[in-house]
Amino acid sequence: MLKKQLLYTLAALICAASAVVPNTATGNEINQLPKKRLTNTGGPLYPQATKTRDLRTLDGIWNFRKSPSDPEVGYRGGWYAQDLDKTGPVIPMPVPSSYNDVGEDISLRDHVGVVWYDRRFHVPSWWGATGQRVWLRFSSIHYAAEVFINGKSVMYHEIGHLPFEAEVSDLVSYNTSNLLTVVVDNTLLSDTVPQGTIKDVYIGPNKIRQDQVYTFDFYNYAGIHRSVFLYSTPAVYIDDVIVNTDIQGLTGFIVYNVTYKGTAADQVRCFVQVFDKNDTQVTAYNDCAGLLEIGNAHFWWPYLMHPEPGYLYSFKVSLIDPHGDVIDTYSQKIGIRTVTWSNTTIYLNEKPLYLKGFGMHEDSDLRGKGWDPVLWVKNFNLIKWLGANAFRTSHYPYAEEIYQLADEYGIMIIDECPSVDTDVFSDALLAKHKQSLTELIRRDKNHPSVIMWSISNEPRSSNKLADKYFGEVVRHVKSMDLSRPVTIAISTGHNTDKSGRHLDVISFNRYNGWYASPGQTQQITHNVVEEASAWHRLHNKPVIMTEYGADTIAGLHLYPEFIWSEEYQCALLSEHFKAFDHLRKAGFFAGEFIWNFADFKTPQSITRVGGNKKGIFTRSRQPKAAAHHLRARYHALAAADHGADLPDTRYYVSDHTPAKHEEL
C-alpha cells in the first residue's frame, strides 16, 4: 500500500515539474519601453562543477552608475552597447551586495528607480570546442532586472530574492572578452511582490525627487544581492531533479523524477545512485523516475531532536548515451524525512514537532541584503548556541546557500515568499504572487529543512477579497507540493480574518506589551493564551505564534523594567513563556518564534532608532540579555521534549558552603 501511495506521489511530482504561471505586465520603469520582455525564471538546480560541467563566478567589483530620474536615458544613450565607463562616470560596486550603503551619497542610499552595472568576462575556449552549453545565472537581483550580453538583451526578471538564468551559448565570444550589462530597478508598485507606491516630492511647484513608500518594516535594499554564475552543461543535460521521501519503520523510501533536455535526448537513459555520508552506495536504479528503498536508513532529524541531526545522503544522477558513456552528471544532498499534520499537531518522521525559533532577515552592516557566508555561518552557530530548531525566512526567500546550511545543521525552515502586507488583491498581483511561489517551490522543493510554505506575512486579510485571493494562492501551492503544510503569518484578529480557513497551520503575529499596551506586561500571558485558543476553536488547526517581542537598545538598563531596556525585553519574553507553557499542555500549540533574531535596518521613522531593535542580538551579532534568557528556555524545552543535555548556562557564583575559620 505504501509503495502504491508513493507512486501516486511520483505522478504528482511529474505534474508539478512543469507548473508555471503566465507572464504578466508590470509598471516597472525598465519594462515600460516599447520592446516587450519575456520573464526568465531560475534553473531549478543550483550550479555545480562536476566531471561534465564547469563553473565560474562573476562576483567581484563591477562598474556602477545611478541613472538620472528619466529611466530611459541609458537606453537612449546605448549604455548597454558599450562599457559604462565610456559613456560617463562610474563608481566601483561590489557584487554581491546592496548598493545603498556602499557609498557616502544620500541620493544613492535613497535612490528610487534604475541603476546600471557592467563588467567584462571570459568564457573558457574549451567550452566552445567541446560543444558545451553556456549558462548565465543570477541568484537574486532586487527588484527587477534586464540583462545584456555584448549589447543584446538576454533576459528579464521581476521579483527579487529568486534566481533566474538563460542559455547564452550563441551570444558569447570565446576569443575575446564579453560585456555583461545589468539594468536594475527597485521600484515597488501596487502589482509588485512586495507592493509599494511612488510619491512625488515638491518644493513649491518644483518636483525635486520621487520617494518609495511601503508599509513593511524593513529597508528596501536593492542591487545584485547574490552570486552571479557562469557555468556550462553538455548539449544534452539534466534539467531538474525532484525528490520526495517517506519512511516505514526503519526503511526509507525515495520517490524521484529526473528531467533532461537537449538534442537527441530520447537516446539517453538515467542511472541514479544514492550514497551515505561515508560515500558508500546504498541503492541504485536504471531509470529517470522511480522508487528507491533503503533499509536501516538514517533519517533526517532536527537539531536537539536526535543525536545525529541533519543526516544527508548524496543523490547522484548520470545521463548515459547509447554507447554507455556518461554525458552529464549532477549530485544533490537529500534527507529522508516526512512531514505530516493533523488538526492539532505537526509531525516529523511521525514524531510531534514543537518549533522554537525566530523570524530573521537577510541584513547586515554595509552589505545590506548581500549574501555573506561569514555572517551566515555565524548565524547558524548562534542558532545552535541558543538551542533553537527553526526559523522563518521573513519576509522573502533567502539565499540558496542558507538552505544548504540548514539541511546540514538540522535547522527547520518555514519558507516564506516575498508577499508582505499583501493588499489590493488584484488579478495582476495574484498572477505575480503565484509566480513567486512557483519559482520558490521549484528552487527549494528538495530541501529537507523546508517543512512549511508561508504564502504571505501580515496581509490585509480582513478585506473580503482576501478570501478568494488566498484560496487561489493555496490551491496553486497544493498543485505543486502536497508534502508540506501551508501557512500565513496573520496579524488580523481571528474574528475578521478571511484567510485562515484555507490554511493547514494557523500562524499569528501579536505584540502584547509593545504596540498594544506598551510597558504593561501583566496582561500578556492571558491575551496570548486567549488568542491562540480562539484561533484553534475557530479553525481546528495547529497554531504557531510567529511574532512577538519588544524593541531594545543594547546597553540600556532600567530597573524596575521600563520599555526599550534589556530588562523589559526579558520581562516581556517571560510573560510569553508562561503563555506558551500553558498552551503546550493544551495539545494544539505547535511553536514559538520571537521577533527578531537580530536588529535590522528599516526606513527612517520617529519610531525606529537606527532600525528595528527587537533583535535578541545586535546587528553585529552581539547578545543582549534576552539572548541568554531565550537560550535557557530553548535548551530546557529540548531537554523536556527529547531528553537533550542541558548546557551550563550560568557563570560560577558559589559552592554554597560556609567559610572556614580556624582559631590560632
From TrEMBL:
GO terms for molecular function: beta-glucuronidase activity; carbohydrate binding. The keyword Hydrolase applies. PROSITE patterns: GLYCOSYL_HYDROL_F2_1, GLYCOSYL_HYDROL_F2_2. Its main location: other. GO terms for biological process: carbohydrate metabolic process; glucuronoside catabolic process. This is Beta-glucuronidase. It catalyses: a beta-D-glucuronoside + H2O = D-glucuronate + an alcohol. The lineage of its organism: Eukaryota, Metazoa, Ecdysozoa, Arthropoda, Hexapoda.
